[in-house]
Amino acid sequence: MRIKVNADNCTGCRLCRQVCAIKHFSEINPAKAALWIEAKFPDPGKYKPHVCIQCGKCAMVCPEGAISRDTSTGAYIVDKTGCTNCGVCVSTCPEKVIFQHPDLNHIIICDFCMECTTVCNVDAVTKWDVMKPSIEAGKEA
Amino acid sequence: MADGFAGTTLRINLSNGEIKKLPTDEKLMREWYGGRGIVAKICYDEVPRDADPLGPLNVLVMTSGILSGAFTPGGSKVEFGSVSPLTNGQGDSNMGGHLGPALKFAGFDLVIFSGISPKPVYICIDDDKVEIRDASKYWGMGSLDCEHLLKQDLGEDFEIATIGPSGERGILFSCISHDFGRQAGRTGQGAVMGSKKIKAIAVRGNKAIKVHNLEALYKHTYDIIQRTKEHPNMEPWQKYGTSFFIRWSNDNAVMPTRNFQTTWYEDVEKVDGESLVTKCLVTHKACFGCWMNCGKYSKAVIEGKKTVFAEGPEYETGALCGPNLGMHDINHVVYINYLLDNYGMDSMSGGGVMAFAMECFEKGLITEKDLEGHTMKWGSIDDVEHFLDMVVNRRGIGDWFAGGTRKAAEKIGKGSEKFAMQVKGQEMSGYDGRWAPGMLLSYMTADIGAHHNRSWTITVDMAEGRETTEGRAKIVIYLQHIRPLFDTWCSCRLFWGELDITPEEYAEAVNLITGWDDSIDQALKVSEKIWNLNRCHYLERNKANGRTFDYPPARSWEDKIPNGPGKGKGVSLEQVETMLDDYYRERGWDKNGNPSRALLEDLGMGFAAENLGKAGFLGKPLEGGIPKVRGEKYKPKAF
Amino acid sequence: MIVYLKAGTQLREHLKPDVDYYTRKVETPEGMTLKQILESIGVNPGFVAFAYTDGKMKNLEYIPNDGEKITLQPPVSGG
């Protein structure tokens, strides 16, 4: 399962980021979301959601081997005790969708719970029923 | 600190650069809620009654509110307040975007700016780190340009409020801008910010907003999300935003046309919502956590001019800078929106000021010589551009208009005050009140002049009779409590107004966030208190009976509507006086428009009665006593 | 022919929906404008800011087609 981004529809409301953080951290704190919205203003005046594309580069570069693929969802999951919060995966991720936060001693990465897709009212992020085992960086199916 | 509040208040003294972090006053927040309420109380308490609004003794208050950022529908606002240089009374204005939430994520409920900085600065709030930084690089820039540069310099994840050259130069209707298209537009908050030499406020926060019952709040809002997705109004609002009102206003003869000379515009289809979405729309743009995305980010392409981007025009700008200026092309209206936004001028007052100038030119009261060889003709985008350049630079008669239409009319004289469409110094919103008496009463009695945000009654006027004043006062009073309640909670009111979310549901969200147990009636009482506090403050500053200030411009009763569906209609001066009498009685104020002791004490505001008494404007006791309940919700009967 | 009129807020109550929470089914002769249809079912057309159908805004002079679903948008909060 993946998330399809229809960037043209995005309105920048950030509802997706709010529900992501609430769902995973029981906090109203978008800084703990696992996706981000790029804003290109004033010109051309468009938003673009960035979500995990399951390319697997993070798992490849993690020096602790703390990131592994959940074969049922396709998500890359972090072992919170194994992760040293070194940040190598953060700088490697082509979509910049791995996050660190001062409160946490591990990285934040999307687990494809799909909550964001249930609130978006403009189909900017939607459920995409496809499994993509390929680790071609930056390429969508 | 109570749930729902970040916990810290910042006091920044710009005269000496002192930054103090204090625990947020819980008692104050409990009594006045936040947002509009807190700015009203702070200004009432801290600004001397004879202080110059552009001087060092005024404060500029920036605050978030209970609903802002807290996962609620439309919970996105940031509120600014100060004593307004435009009206000389309490002024407040808010805007959506993402700044209000960011303030709470950074850990602050409230920022109070005092004094005046010796040189231009910007404020940088990065979680706990608060700094006053040199803004010489940015001073002089357009507000949109400045936000763009600051985002490049500081980081895209900062939320930024800016002023433009208009605010820097103290033009009285200057606004504060944010998110490439949102403005705290009215009452000249940008002029106050500029007087303190604050060019921008940049905020970034990574903390959580602690709420009382997150699980219940999440369900409450999640259910509302799913329910409103199916609401019939959702799709048209997403597509058109407020712009669809343009045709309706025109069809129903309330469209301000050529400086409110008439109320129906013959070329409306060239500047309406359909033309906006088909010719200029680039992106539907939303505020924080809003899934109605009513914002319309647009592009203006005009031969011979540079292509520009602006959010809008929203209805008000679309009306006041469209038919009100006799414009014939939606691209021109978008362009005017951009000019006003980048200069940092309120687009509503901006439209009103320009329309006034155009009528003065039409009547020969200002000439080409006054306008540096240019004209100021209806429908001319080039004239508009040159005129605004004169105003923002305070060149020649541009300086007269920099004070708004009231001050411009004082300078021009020759009876022009009759068609300076303002009350208490602030220009009228985009609806003509001559065939909608409740709307006229709304303009007359709003605390901040001729603004519709407090009370909007056109559909009530249509239902109850457009030529009678019967029952209007009670309804206006109720609306003046419920609508600004959203400004107090720092929430957009469009979900309530358009998508059937009830006030009780909002009150429930407030309780889930704070752990309080306030009913909607208690919340409305807070709103009534704020209303009366602002009235007392206004009277103490302006030193005359309230009635003195509550009249609309003479055009309202002297000029009947000359053409269109409303031809021949208009209120009489007698109706104006009757509406005021009704309104004051229903408010518990005396015939002079002054709040009575009984009313203020009923609201637990004995202190305000004492102060008003000392100033000599405490209202005389009412015969028969004050109404037990002030204001009544409108129950539509005749549809 | 049949048209389906949808509305929320106070307009919904006056529309008297009978198909679902928001929708009223109206049987009407062909060629009637929305304004005339509304008047025929006792709804004041002045309270409809505009109609919205098939993704487009229409005014009340619009003549609906058979089976068309039309949203009626009242102007409630102004501004």
How many DSSP-defined strands of chain C? 5
| Global mean pLDDT of chain B | 96
Radius of gyration of chain C: 11 Å
Distance between the termini of chain C: 37 Å
Going across the major beta sheet of chain B, what is the strand order?
2-1-6-3-4-5
Could you state the order of secondary-structure elements of chain C as H and E? EHEHEEE
Oligomer: heterotrimer
Quote the average pLDDT of chain C: 88
| Domain unit count of chain C | 1
Number of helices of chain C: 2
* Radius of gyration of chain B, whole Å: 23 Å
Fraction of residues of chain C in helices?
10-25%
Summarize the structure.
The complex is a heterotrimer of chains A (141), B (639) and C (79). Chain A is of the alpha+beta class and 141 residues long. Helices cover 18% and strands 17% of the residues of chain A.
Report on the architecture of this protein.
The complex is a heterotrimer of chains A (141), B (639) and C (79). With 141 residues, chain A is of the alpha+beta class. Chain A is built from four helices and six strands. Chain A has helices at residues 15-25, 57-61, 88-92, 115-119, and strands spanning 2-5, 36-40, 46-50, 67-69, 76-78, 125-128. In chain A, the strands form three sheets. In chain A, strands 1-6 form a two-stranded antiparallel ribbon. In chain A, strands 2-3 form a two-stranded antiparallel ribbon. In chain A, a hairpin with a 5-residue loop joins β2 (36-40) and β3 (46-50). The radius of gyration of chain A is 15 Å and the shape is globular. Mean pLDDT of chain A is 93; it is low at 134-141. Chain B is of the alpha+beta class and 639 residues long. In chain B, the strands form four sheets. Chain B has a six-stranded mixed beta sheet. A six-stranded mixed beta sheet of chain B has the order 8-7-12-9-10-11. Chain C has one domain: Ubiquitin-like (UB roll) (Roll), CATH 3.10.20. Chain C contains two helices and five strands. The longest helix of chain C is centred in the N-terminal third of the chain and has 7 residues, at 9-15. The radius of gyration of chain C is 11 Å and the shape is globular. Chain C starts with a strand and ends in a 6-residue tail after the last strand. The mean pLDDT of chain C is 88. The interface between B and C is medium-sized, with 40 and 30 residues.
